[in-house]
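yo, Aminopeptidase is done. seq:
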Amino acid sequence: MSIHFLNSRTKLSRMNVLAEIAALAISLACLHSVAVSCTPMQPKLYGEAAPEPHAQLDHYRLNDDVLPTHYDIEIKPYFDPEPEKQAFTFDGNTVITVTAAAENVMQIKLHMANMNILSWSVMRKSNSMLVRSGNKTYDKDTQILALHLNETLLKNVEYLVVFNYVGVMEDNMRGFYRSYFKQNGTEMWLGSTQFEQTEARRAFPCFDEPKFKTTFQLKLNYKHLEYNVFSNTPITKSDVIGSNRTLATFSITPKMSTYLLAFIVAPYSTSGDDILRVLSRPEAVNQTTYSIDEGLKLLKVLGDFLEYPFNNVTEITRMYMAAVPDFAAGAMENWGLITYRESSLLYVPEDATSLQQQRIATIISHELAHQWFGNLVTCEWWDVTWLNEGFATYFEYFGTASVEPSWELDQQFVVDKLHTAMQTDGTMSTHPMTHPVYTQAQAAAMFDAISYNKGGVVLRMLEHHMSSEVFKAALVEYVKDRQFKPSRPEHLFAVLDKHNSSASAFMKPWTTQPGFPLVTVTANENGFSITQQRFLTNHTNQEDKLLWPLPITYATKGDEFSNTKPTLVVTEAYNISLANATNVQYFILNNQQVGYYRVHYDDALWEKINNALRSRGFAGIHVLNRAQIVDDLFNLARADVMGYRKALDMLEYLKEETEYAPWLAAANGLATLALRIHPDDEKLFSQHIKDMFAKVYEYVQFQAPAHSDRRLHTYLRRLVLDWTCRYGHDDCSKSALKEFETFRTNSSATVHPDLRQVVYCEGVRKGSLEQFDFLLNLYLTTNAATEQQLTLLGMSCATENAVIHKFMNLTSSPDVRSQDKATAFAMLLNNQYALESAASYLVENSARWAEAYGGYKHVATALGGILTRVKNVTVKETIAQFAETSKDQLGQEAYELITKGLEEYDNNQQFIMNHRDEILGFLTLKAGSDASRTGILNVVVALCLTLLAI
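structure:
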């Protein structure tokens, strides 16, 4: 599956309470990219904190006494009331072929949720003889239905378990759910599915764990005059059965897990060819061309790489990709019928940014990669989700890179995935890639930055250890070896070791241990000594003795950064021998940041690096190592490994930087630092930001991208304009406001998509209700989901109290779809000027917010997000008072979320006070030196003008 950006963070009960707040805080940096799609590829803003399990943990898992081998499923949905039928319900009939795998089996356990079982029976398949049945029992916590029998099942004999039931098409984007779109002002209803991780049980009783791989045959009973139907496989038969209904029978699926079954009943149109087709609402057919073209290229590239074309699976003769108006994730890899958010699939060149276009391509690549890693070869249980998602994340970037080499996705991967993984993995609440889970909430929580980003990063690291050719050969063998089977890490490791004897020894510690190392480098006469210890943002000097097999590469001059074949170091300390070590211009560890670790150097080595960064061409230091150094400096200072004054002084080199990756790393670091600047020092900090960005602003200019521009140059411009306008750069603000007002007052004017983020935002930031309402109208009337994202982001930049409250009213209204509500609020959280108003709104309108978002837990999550970012003690006290006076209404879980948010506020304030003097000292020094330089420059200019006059 692709977090959406906004899916849960912490794993077991000791970590659960902070999950939602942490998810909000960590994900906010992604908003700068306007690639927001709320997919596990960028974990959820609103993670669902896993409640304390009520049952024993092992009771949440099914046993292996009874094994399914095939499902026959018939679904009959009702979108309107019919005699004795309620709207948005469905009749279901499911027949499961099962085999007893043990002796003396007298009960069958399987899953179901939110359905009414009308009847059930068990019969022997060979002769249809009924098995004498007793009662059924159901555990609502484990969602396990137990069918009790009055006679034993014969071992290794096939039986049929038959269910008749009624289910509900809810609007919560889980199971078989309802959605809608408007056509000529009329609501057009549809039904779609989302079964990962544990939601197939909402559509049919089933063995809802990925290890139970079976075949499926689906029948859909639908009104053919109003709807079309789609599923994983093609329709083999359509029978008109009266009452304007048709019974469509789909061909049998490959052997697969329940979560991969999918079906859609919708008034949809299709476009594409016999290999790949896109399904969409009719008014969006003209937005499907790009996805069809890109999807076809990616299908071929991935099939060629793995030497296994997707349609080698005989049941999958074509690929459907469907754009669903309401979709909780970014996309879902259902075999042969991939479902997407509209903004993750539909593309209008004149209304989408370059980064949104890239996001669509990489999401398609991610989901298509799942056809092999996830569908063909499936993780045995969600404790090893990374076997699905790590590979999909790897191909999300490197698969797309094969089709779009000019996008330089190898550079973007390091900052987007590796740096982001470290932010999550550097905390005590992280977890290993392989990590025990039992409950539904714990399973959902595994779809996070560790399974996705760290999974992909570790695979990239393994590729450089093995070499690309050997890595590819191993993956080809792994896919063929485990096809149609569930997989565990040991299955992957066994294949890897056949191709490189040290592969699993290298890989396993990275998957079974939490966190990552900090490597400290010290120069000596004979070379450089290195030591490793676990890096933690707040607790690096602790007693954790974890060790990792370190992939060591280094460079002392520009032409050495191309070597990414590492030496493995498995000890706590190690010496790198190097002749004339004291004479090298610099020593930089971890070429192109292939290794997943931070690096800290002794003072002399840092000074050499500092001098190199300030020299011509950065002394050949690779752009990815410059991004690495930037990210490390911010985080070493944050963890008190290095002082802020030294770190900020070294980061001054950025004034001459013109590449995207280092600047993106800087923006992420500055976004975190900005939350930790004392309120009285913010003017100095703003001046420092403008000073840092001054030259790069002149380099990118406020202008639309040229056709010949590098893609990363366009991304750099977007980032620079975002920061300079936000911090009051005069030319940026004037240029953006001019563009906005021309667009607002001239119906024929347009804003280039790659300038819209900053133009929309600055127009509302410096405007009032008039400017906000202009964007609101655009949001409500546009036919392009990508444009909706941009207008929503623009409206979130409001600074006036009344406008902010109007934005909060909007996001808690039906005008913002459920899938976009969390994204919209996260956008507002990124606006420091809105936090106080947002807090007052939530306190005053908590009932409205709870109803719109689905409970008071979401009120608490929103307030917790504010508390992690606000600096105003009055706001903190207002929220604290609200929590106490509304404790009964909030409930214990929501109350604890706010309590933890209050603790985070206190921790942040303590951090601010602990580091204020050093940060303020640096800012004051820089302001003074800048003022001196400005004064000298003014004198020189005056003298020159005088001489010219003479």
